[in-house]
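Exercise 7. Predict the joint structure of the components listed below.
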Amino acid sequence: MLEIIKPGLETSIQDFPGRIGYWNQGFPPSGPMDSWSFRLGNILLGNDAGAPGLEAQFMGPTIKFQSDGVIALTGADMMSKLDGEAIPNWQSIAVKAGQTLVMGPAIKGSRGYLTVAGGIDAPNWLGSASTFHKASVGGLDGSAIQAGQVLPVKAGAGQAGRRVKEACRPIFASDKKWQIEAVAGPNDDWIDDAGHAQFLATEWKLEARSDRTGYRLDGPDWTFTEKATNKPPENGEFPSNIIDHGYPLGGINLCGQKPIILVNDGPSMGGFIVPYTVPSAAFWKLGQIKPNEFLCFNKVSVEEAQALRIALDDMCNETSIES
Amino acid sequence: MIFDEANFSPGGDRYITVEFGNEMNLELNFMAQGLAGALREAGTKGLVETAPCFASLLVHYEPRDISYGDMVTELKSLIGSLGSTDEIELDSRLFTFETLYLDPWTKECIDDYREKLNPDKEYDPDFVARLNGLEDRHQLVRVHSSSEYWVASLGFWPGLPFLQPLDPRAMITCPKYNPPRTWTPQGAVGMGGSASSIYPVATPGGYQLFGRTPVPIWDPNKRFDAFEGDIVLFRPGDRIKFQPVTRADYDDAERKIEDGSYLYNIVEYQRFSVRNYQSWVNKLDKSERF
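Solution:
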């Protein structure tokens, strides 16, 4: 049982892969934004890789344990302390009833994960415990965790002292510039050659007004092909308007001239083109980049993006752990 | 136009967009929904889910189970097996919703927008009627409520339906708000472009508003059996009829919704045949209005 003393900036229950299968009703998958770190946290504890845990954003929560157990901290370094003693990320740690965990500000990365042996016991909403608080769905009560709540934990026998191998941990950008893979499409033919060259050459700044629904990027204006300017009127008046269509998760959605990456809680459809898509293997980087840092996009093929995803999935298992 | 052959394009490592054309045309949505249904029935390995829209279908697949190229081949073969859109038949439920047109709540919302954001904004029902050459707001109500509406897709917000009138004599168009509204009453009925919608919850919005229904299409507390355990009411391929009612009937329905005794009016025995639909449309004089 986890008693929430302070909730942090916005800490929510998430599971992996989240709420899949309801995109045609407008439900996003939600789930942890850095699912690499999240899954490793569960594997450290012998949980299913996708078991419900907590995602803390930018400023972590303070939590008092009401029972003995084993926990793991992964993802962003939040200078976490257990009863005042610093404790490391990337390893399983035994906790006693009455001890207090303080997760502080994220000094490296943006999102820290707390997993507990057994997993948090949260109800399934449409097949997932993941919180989508904008629509009051998931988690314990449809919202981020709040002070005074007690989160139940399922029975589980974790083992303390297990570590994620150094080589199997994500490496966060140290110079504020993140190399992000991008696959051209579905609407890359609406952008002209100059527009493509500029997209790949620009260091796009992540705006502060970004959240789990969308990442707004600051950079130059886009230029278009004739397809964008010569089209039936029901497409809409702006060059980037298209007849409402389904959005791929990770799509770089061009709202007027403003690119917004659609992330875990994003909209399922709308009337703007998507010239590029960030593949699933690069989502963990989106989860850890901070506002005012920079995204540099590297074009990869569909096949390369799929190979990256499979390689990442293969790292989210017991082979990444040492004792 | 409707493309001779569907376009396929990748969305990252796990999505494919299938585009059937680049205009607002019900036939394109029938193709998108027809392909979604065919995929479901084929049980293609690696298929995760689909999301049909007006003129396209988004396909979500698992790259570990099927490659991009193999999924495109599978989609092409299924499109081929659909034959002409005339052959498409879909299960389609019909929902009837009590609707108070020209209601006081959307009026209050429009007045608030005029006061705070744009004093020149014409009252939405008058604006839409004028743009479409209708006599007045009362004819707008007659025309809008005359047709069944096709749930082409759901999105923007969970459960929010994008609706197209099935009767071409009810086809009207209008621009969206610019700038958008900061709030909209739950249950507001309105339209933008040629699409109508119902706001599932109070959200910002850009559609022109002219009515309100008390009937929930969003039920997080699972109070009503009509949702069949789901939180949202509709699926693509459903149909909706807006039934104009008096304020007294509206209040009566609202009371029953509050105490949980409200009965959803849903017809479930019908299949939608594109052939039958097209032959009916071809008989109509599309210049007529109700």
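Discussion. Chain B touches chain A through 50 residues (CB under 8 Å).
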